[in-house]
Amino acid sequence: MLIGVPRKIKPDEYRVALTPAGAETLTSAGHQVLADMGWRAACLHDPALALGVNIVDGHVTYPGVAEAFGLDYADVQGFLTPPAQA
């Protein structure tokens, strides 16, 4: 199983979603752990993850969701490369 651990996003946040010992336990049991990568890095690390992305920055990136709700579809691949720095 592939397990994603959310990134801490608030300043002075001291909660820990997964300890190093917990990650070791999971990986020794045969699981993959993606920690503190962010969604772009995680999808680039494992492209299959991108297949489950439904919405990015307000854009619907899953064809079935867009079709069901009559919304415009935007391919998630276009969001995987970070915008160029100005």
Protein architecture, described:
With 86 residues, the chain is an alpha+beta fold. The mean pLDDT is 81. It has 4 helices and 4 strands. A two-stranded parallel sheet has the order 1-2. Strands 3-4 form a two-stranded antiparallel sheet. 31% of the residues lie in helices and 14% in strands. It is globular, with a radius of gyration of 16 Å.
Characteristics of this structure?
86 residues, 4 helices, single chain, 31% helix
Chain-wise SSE layout:
Blueprint: E1 2-5, H1 20-28, E2 32-35, H2 39-45, E3 55-56, E4 59-60, H3 63-69, H4 77-80
Parallel strand pairs: 1-2
Antiparallel strand pairs: 3-4
The proportion of residues forming helix, as a percent range, comes to 25-40%
Give the DSSP E fraction (strand runs of 2 or more residues): 5-15%
The ordered string of helix (H) and strand (E) elements is: EHEHEEHH
> Strand order, biggest sheet?
1-2
Summarize the structure.
The chain is 31% helix and 14% strand.
